[in-house]
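As the next step, I selected for study a record pairing a protein sequence with its C-alpha cells, which the following lines show:
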Amino acid sequence: LFIGTCLIRLKGANSDDPKGDEEYFSGRKRIFQSVIQGQFKEKVSVADVFTGHEFTRPLKNLPHPWVLKTATNFIGRVSPGANIVVHTEQPYVEALLSGSSQVIRGDMPGNEPNIACKNLVEDCSVLGGLFQNGNMPVARRKRILSNPARCRDYSFDCETVYTFEFYQNLFDASTYSLDLGFTKIGCSQVLNG
C-alpha cells in the first residue's frame, strides 16, 4: 500500500550520519526519531492507517497494575485514540498514524523535504477540508485525526509524497527501558525475548 523511505535516529547509537544526529538531537530532550516518506499506491482512508507495535508472544513480568495504568493513561494523552492491549497472547499498541505523528506534510513529487533535515515543517493542506489553509496548529490536527469518526472524512491520495515524523523522549534504546519520569521500566524482561 505504500512505498518510500524510512530514517531512524537513536541518540547515542552508532550512526552512518553522526554529525546529522548530533545536530538533530542538540538542545532537545528527544532520544528517538523516525521519519517515513513516500507515496501510497492506492487511495486510503486516514482512518485505516495505523502505527504502533505488535508482539508475537505474550508479555511477561509486567509492572504493578498501577504503574501499567499510569503508563497507559500517559500514552493515551500523548496519542489520543491509542489502542493498548497487553494482556493477550499477541499484545499490541496501535494508534492512528495521522493523530500520533508529530509532523505530517504532503508535497508534490520533487518538492518533498530532505528527511535528514533538522526541522520538518507541518503542512496538511493537501488533505483539504479543515486543513486546506495549511495553518492548523499541530495539537488541533492531532485531536481531529486521532478520532476515527472525524478522520474518516480524509484520505491519503496516490499523487502526493507524504512525510510523517515521530519523535519521543520516553523509550531509550541504549538501555532498552521506558522512562515514565517517576519510574523506569526495563523492557527486555517484559518483551519475553
Notes: The first strand starts at residue 2 and ends at 10.
